[in-house]
Amino acid sequence: MSQADRTRERLIEIYRKKARHYDSTSWLYPAPGYPHRAQRSRAVRALGLRPGDRVVDIACGTGLNFPLVEEAIGPSGRLVGVDLTDAMLARARDRVEANGWNNVSLVQSDAAEFDFPAEVDAILSTYALTQVPECGQVIAHGAAALSDGGRLVVLDLKLPDRTPGWLSRLGIAAVRTSASPDEWIMRRPWATIRAAMHDELADPSWTELCFGTAFLAGGSSPRNRR
Predict the structure, then answer these.
(1) What pLDDT shows up at residue 26?
(2) Mean pLDDT of all residues in 80-103
């Protein structure tokens, strides 16, 4: 089994266990008491959504972003939720049915292998993309699928600069990433995402949150279209 396959298996195992209680425990990240929903709202606002827009939520989990996106795009818009784990998508499907949203499609797929629909208006990922080893590849694929003026936004976790190694490992162990603490620290996925945003998107932005333990990054459709 390849490293990518092992990572995929770990992610599925972790999130199958988390699915049932994910909504009630998500407030713990990046820190207990952190305004978690407010930052999700901030990420959705950064997309600049309008009624009728087509949106992809990568690693959508149980669909915590769906109400925020639906409020912005309305019934004439389209929302595609993508997640690797069947148990998380089952919870997302319950949310969709409970709210009577007829414009939501759910796709079970590895983020790195997902075939983005062409001319999508916005792509969002919250608290998930740093767990994907090919996170830079996901940014590149998403950027290529954006319509003119489309936006890609990532809200996720990171380590603060100059954090002692022992404290980094303790924090990562609490979050339960798909990788070992040392592997996650060495990979520095937030740096990969920042570089990919700069390389693939126009007007890239980067804002650190919660004393450097989280970030909000965004950008517009690729430079070569301008």
Answers:
(1) 61
(2) 96
Cα gap 221→118, rounded to integer Å: 12
User: For residue 21, what is the DSSP state?
Assistant: G
Domain containing residue 12: CATH number:
3.40.50.150
Instruction: Tell me the per-residue pLDDT of 159-205, one tens digit each, with 9 for 90 and over.
Output: 887 654 544 444 444 444 444 555 656 788 999 999 999 999 999 99
pLDDT over 90 percentage in the chain: 60
Q: How far apart, in whole angstroms, are the C-alpha atoms of residue 197 and residue 203?
A: 9
pLDDT at residue number 173: 47
DSSP 116-163: PPTTEEEEEEES-GGG-TTHHHHHHHHHHHEEEEEEEEEEEE-PPTT-
Q: In whole angstroms, give the CA distance from residue 123 to residue 116.
A: 9
Amino acid letter for position 116 = F
DSSP 112: G
Which residues, in sequence order, are CB contacts of 148 under 8 Å at separation 6+?
221, 225
Rounded to 5°, the CA angle 17-40-190 comes to 75
Domain count for the chain? 1
**146: domain range?**
3-225
pTM, rounded to two decimals: 0.84
Terminal Cα-to-Cα distance of the chain (whole angstroms): 42
State the amino acid at position 36 in one-letter form: H
